[in-house]
Write a structure and sequence with these properties.
This protein is mainly α. It has 14 helices and no strands. The termini are far apart.
Amino acid sequence: MKYDEIISEIKSLANPESVKGMAKFGINPDNTYGVSIPELRKIAKNSGKNHALALKLWASGIHEARILASIIDDSKMVTEEQMKSWVIDFDSWDVCDQCCLNLFNKTAFAHKKVIEWSKRDEEFVKRAAFALIAILAVHDKKLDDKELEKFLSLIKQEAKDERNYVKKAVNWALRQIGKRNANLNKAAINAAKEIQKYESKAAKWIACDALRELTGNTVNKKLKL
């Protein structure tokens, strides 16, 4: 599929009621047509991987087109400059998370960007850092435990951020590290206990929520603790 065909397809699938529903879950309704992820994945199958098309779709500024761009882009062709440009454009948590899940975690720069973006002030840029940690913890099977333990330091540093989309991503990252294996479970629990002592509502929520899951029966059974 070509660019014009994709944009026309997105607009033909517009669902105003879905946009209203998305807004209730904190998704930015601007330039949004309410097209579901499964529908976007169908379009992606028809278009195939295409780096140039992905760049053009992103430049459209359309919510769904940007998510689609992250699906069809070729991670091997993504540059640091592109990641820098796209992350600044994040204006909704779902676009942030989809880009990290579909594309950014597969690039050669993922770990570097985790560290870099965790120090940034912009809410969705910082969220991207911790969304990447969570996604890498789940999907990068070759990732060494020591590397994930380093990420725990970033989690402890940023756990006082009271902004909703940041604290939820920090919590997500902490929980995913702690569910990877028995050694990381212990390390994540220790980190959560440290965070729990901070004089911060966000930190206490992050820690309590993570501890509830990481010490629960489901995780214990999965990791055979």
